[in-house]
Amino acid sequence: MTQYIIRRVIQSIFVILGVITAVFIISNLSGDPATLILGPNASADAIQAMKERLGLDQPLYVQYVKFIGDAVRGNFQQSLQYQGHSSMNIALTRFPRTVELAGVALILEVIISLTLGIIAAVKRYSMIDNFVMFIALVGQSIPNFWLGIMLILIFSVNLGWFSSQGYSLSPYYFVLPAITLAAPPIARLTRLTRSGMLDVLGEDYVRTGRAKGLQERTVVLGHALKNAAIPLVTVIGLDFGRLLGGAIITEQIFEWNGVGQLLVSSIESRDFPVVQAAVFIIAATFVLINLIVDLLYAQLDPRVRLT
Amino acid sequence: MNAESGQPATTTQTRAAQRADLTLATIKERRSNRRRALQMLWHNRLGSIGALILILVAIAAVFAPFLAPADPNHGEIVARLQCPMLTSCPRFGTDQTIHGSSKHILGTDQLGRDILSRIIYGARISLIVGLTAVAIGAGFGTILGLISGYYGRWADSLIMRVGDIFLAFPFFLLAIAIVAAVGGGLFNVIVVLAVASWVPYARLIRGSVLSSKAQEYVIAARAIGVRDMGLLLKHILPNVITPVIVYATFGVAAAIIAEAGLSFLGLGVGSTVSDWGAMLADGRQYVGTAWWLATIPGVAIMLTVLSINMIGDWIRDALDPHLRNI
Q1: Residues in B touching A142 (Cβ below 8 Å)
Q2: In B, which residues are within 8 Å of A152 by CB distance?
Q3: What's the pLDDT tens digit per position in B224-281?
Q4: Extended beta strands in chain A, E state
Q5: What is d(CA B55, CA A127) in angstroms, rounded to the nearest whole number?
Q6: Residue B70 exposure: Cα atoms within 13 Å on the Cβ side
């Protein structure tokens, strides 16, 4: 296990370096930062001076090495929009709000999906099963930015039950964005839970459990679910990362001022250092979550370590 | 006698009971099979409904100039924010109530453009982006997966490690980051969505190639002197392509949603064309006053994506029985 942990950690470090490289490449695609900072009307001398200050006059590989060195320490250029503020700090202050939203969405996802998925599997091929599966199919097909707007239209504009915008950890604010964010993963996890349960419900130990007179509840929740849950742990873990990515649009709709909204508004104002920092934070967290999920999975299912 | 006959009688009874149980089990089994068959049919029916919807969307996209009742980009400001036919709404900025007319079946937007026409034209963008992005992404991923699985060694390591980096970004984040740098537009959006989606295809193919490399038909083909290229394309590829087809079908659905999402954020194909995501973004501003603006394009996206997902389930059931339960 120790060997596996070391191998996965090293691998993740290389992936993070790759992420930084990708951010470097992407930011080089966006044009000349010096012109961006000074604006299109700046004189050639001023642009040249700015290039020297930023180290842009040096060869690309020198810039690259410096970029990696800075990024590893969390140093990105200062924000262009908020002069004098570190991009990383700006992104970091917004990040917890995104994590909170994704966390609430994840809790919703797990509760709803497991319940529906187990019911559908136990009552398979029944009307309930077909109904749940159809809802899941529709849920997978709804663009969640549209769902968000529709929820606002119904529950905020017409019924006035929930707020349509703003950040706060009270249900009045977070219910609609959390549902919006969780809807596609709920649909997917419900289908996966159902199929996972169907697989194990046909196993010998389930029949044995029933044969020795255990209550159906114990068989389903105690024996079957426990075994079906192992692959689901991976999916749920990865979903947390996906929710962080998905929050970009949801935050935009509900004006939830997390890192996703920061990303979009920085793209609009062409504040590329902040874009870099925001992209880096989300991607790095995603890598970290993947690592934790993998290690957890290896703990639960020892066969994984061998591959 | 009684005692003696009792014994066999009990046995007979037990046997009868067993038989009854067996029959019951068989009946249950059969019933379950019948239900299963019904479910397959249900899926197939969903599949045909999906195919029907998608054909309608495709017809709308191809024949847009003939089907659209008006120019999608021409707005009459006096006719702005009219509600769909059979509904009524206050005239914009007044207390007067107006009724939707048959002239604009789905109403008009904030610039007085006919929404039905914009929806019909919008089908073009969604289908073009969805299909081409997936074709490029899946094609690219398949080629890299074949190379990775077949040649192994450094090519495999390189492709898979680069893939890991791509997977380190949530799909939509990667798309946004690249579009933010290179700018929007039809071509860029297609390329970006393709670039952001090739890895799962490469991984799928690589896994299948690895397991089929040791199979007899591959060894046999190599033994009779089939070259690498022929072996890969004529023998291995047809045997490993099935999961890619299934995955790609769902990929089209995902790409259509992602394209609409980019447009919704103002990073899409641009404002000069009718685009469902951009229409949604416009409609969001009027969600309190003109509900149809945001509702209708969303329904269009949902129906299109739903139809593709239905077809995807159907294709998976047909091509890959192992995955039926998912």
Answers
A1: 298, 302, 305
A2: 287
A3: 888 888 888 888 888 888 888 888 999 999 999 999 999 888 888 876 778 898 888 8
A4: none
A5: 29
A6: 21
